[in-house]
Design a protein that fits this description.
The protein has 214 residues and is of the alpha+beta class. It has eight helices and five strands, in the order H-H-E-H-H-E-H-H-E-H-E-E-H. It has one domain: NADH Oxidase. Helix content is 45%, strand content 12%. Strands 1, 2, 3, 4 and 5 form a five-stranded antiparallel sheet that branches. It starts with a helix and ends in an 11-residue tail after the last helix. Bound molecules: flavin mononucleotide.
């Protein structure tokens, strides 16, 4: 395995919003290829309860986009209030502007991919971990596969606040759960940078909680 390219892929797969190419069409073949790689991910008991809805129809994207925009706009407004001065400059301001951009152009993104799970979330921590754990590793595989082919996406959750309305638009049965919406497009940038993160030494422990790992 080529560790250099693997590490580059793993450390530079970002939430892409402003660098989505809204004009370049996305072929079905590349999406199928990425979904084929996505479903190499693990699932609890190998149950593979995932289902994937690829949306290209402009009328449907407009309807979903409306839900996305209404919930997203409210989220951004609340975040600006919560962050106060931190929303006005630096990383906070950049993240908000990036989020707002995606909200503004959402219907223009060529493809939406909606990962779904058969069943509804129920129960306590174990049941919920197993439920959602049945798809998020695959969602990330999908995003990595997109990135390696020059496409980008952001895992978004806004529209889930109006999940039932989205289900009606999309014809999704009552016993199927949507877990997000990925706007997918080719990217206008050829490369991305690793993100700043809290150092691993501050968040990893050895044997007992609080004992530094390194
Ligand atoms: C479960 C989940 C839900 C998210 N929901 C949204 C969303 O609704 N809107 C959005 O713009 N980004 C959303 N994101 C993307 C995060 O904001 C993003 O991953 C984070 O800011 C870190 O940026 P990076 O992925 O480029 O490192 C979500 C990410 C995850 C994992």
């Amino acid at each position: 395995m080529d560790i250099t390219s693997t590490d580059h892929l793993l450390s530079t797969t970002r939430a892409v919003r402003r660098k989505l190419d809204l004009d370049r069409p996305v072929e079905t073949e590349v999406l199928t290829e990425c979904l084929r790689l996505a479903i190499q991910a693990p699932t609890p008991g190998n149950a593979q309860q995932w289902r994937w809805l690829v949306v290209r129809d402009q009328g449907i994207k407009n309807e979903l986009g409306k839900l996305f925009r209404e919930v997203g706009t409210e989220y951004v407004r609340n975040t600006v209030t919560r962050l106060g001065d931190a929303a006005k400059e630096g990383a906070g301001a950049r993240a908000l502007a990036s989020g707002q951009y995606l909200i503004d152009v959402i219907e223009q993104v060529p493809v939406f991919v909606i990962p779904c799970l058969q069943g509804r979330p129920r129960g306590g921590n174990e049941a919920l971990s197993v439920f959602y754990g049945g798809i998020f590793p695959a969602v990330w595989n999908f995003q990595l596969a997109l990135r390696s082919r020059g496409l980008g996406s952001t895992l978004t959750s806004y529209h889930l606040e109006r999940e039932a309305e989205a289900a009606k638009i999309l014809g999704i049965p009552d016993d199927v759960t949507q877990v997000g919406l990925l706007p997918v497009a080719y990217t206008t940038a050829a490369d991305f940078k690793p993100a700043a993160r809290t150092p691993v030494e501050e968040i990893s422990f050895l044997d007992t909680w609080g004992t530094p790992l390194a």
